[in-house]
Amino acid sequence: MEIAMDEARLAAFMEEEFPQVAGDFVIESVGEELVVRLKVGELHLRPGGTVSGPTMFALADVSVWLAILSRIGPVALAVTTGASIDFMRKPAAGRDLIARARLLKLGRVLAVGDVLIFSEGEAAPVARSSMTYSIPPKG
Fold first, then answer.
1. d(Cα 43, Cα 59) in Å, to the nearest integer?
2. Ordered domains of the chain (ranges, CATH)
3. CB atoms inside a 10 Å sphere around CB 85
4. 80 vs 60, 89, 108, 110, CA distance in Å?
5. How many CB atoms lie within 10 A of CB 125?
6. Per mean pLDDT, which of 9-18, 73-82, 130-139 is the most reliable?
7. Name one Pfam family in it (predicted).
8. Element containing residue 84 per DSSP (H, E)
9. What integer pLDDT is reported at residue 53 of this predicted model?
10. Is 21 in contact with 57 (CB distance < 8 Å)?
């Protein structure tokens, strides 16, 4: 497995290409598994004080996007073409979410990734997601 972009390069690229949300995510490690932290704030909560489903979906989506870029380099226009998410338990209140993303397939045109999302400090995942991305042709 060859790493094209490390944590620092991915963070800089995200800040440049996706600044509206870049501050919400911290790329903790890049390797066989990419680990991303979502800094949970008030805007991520839904009534009842839990993290909203759309927030967890965004974490899964961004995590797979970053996992792909870590392998192929800075391709801003790689886009989600398929997604599913299973919400398995309520995230712990007042804790960041941690996504562990891995690529199951990385082809020339499509990439498929799997993500487990955890509340910080908890062993059981709160959500699981599968994402498919379209990779634009080179050139």
1. 14
2. 7-134 (3.10.129.10)
3. 18
4. 11, 25, 15, 10
5. 17
6. 9-18
7. 4HBT
8. strand 79-87
9. 94
10. no
